[in-house]
Write a structure and sequence with these properties.
It is a single chain. 43% of the residues lie in helices and 0% in strands. The longest helix has 28 residues. It folds into three domains: 58 residues; 54 residues, no CATH class; 35 residues, no CATH class. The C terminus is likely disordered. Helix 2 runs antiparallel to helix 6 and helix 3 packs across helix 5. By secondary structure, the chain is mostly helical. InterPro entries: Znf_CCHC (IPR001878), Znf_CCHC_sf (IPR036875). GO terms for molecular function: nucleic acid binding; zinc ion binding. Keywords: Metal-binding, Zinc, Zinc-finger. This is CCHC-type domain-containing protein.
Length: 201
Amino acid sequence: MTTNLVECINYVLKGAHNLPVTAIVRSTFYRLNELFTRKSTDAYERLRNGFTYSKFTTKRVEESFRRAGNIVVNRFDRRNEMFEVERLLCHHMLACCANQRLDWQVYVHDVYKMSEICKVYKGEFVPMGDPSTWDRYEGAKVIANWTLRRATKGRPKSTRYLNEMDSRDMRGPRRCTICGREGHSRSRCPQCAGPSSVRSH
């Protein structure tokens, strides 16, 4: 569930990773504020309408009930790994509950209840305020290194640190063995007319 929550937040912040740091902070604040406001309204509205579980849980349980009607229970020795992870009943467990006349809601984790979901949205977003009202920053001064800026045109330049395994990258520029100039090899030397002249040298 944590992974799903992170993926949802990543979707909300999509398109903000290329912005400056200040703009990213501002975008993150307002986009998450809008998301929590909308989700909070939906959650409290569903709770006021008398729903016990979320839409996801209700849909899963209804589907499991539909599939449980075709199951005949003979033995109760099956381990359900999906239930142990999600704490949400599948059609096998609903069939067992119906066979033994057990209340299936007892086995559903509280995290799926609307009363618990609404607690997620109890927190409030404190307005950021005007920058002129912020406290003066006394920490270290960060200076941007423009040489590490991503190139807008052409192939991206490697910014990783080289080690002894990158001996080819650490050596100097290529030098032609025919004319002695840098930037090309003997096969692309402008003084070389063709393969036959290379062999003649």
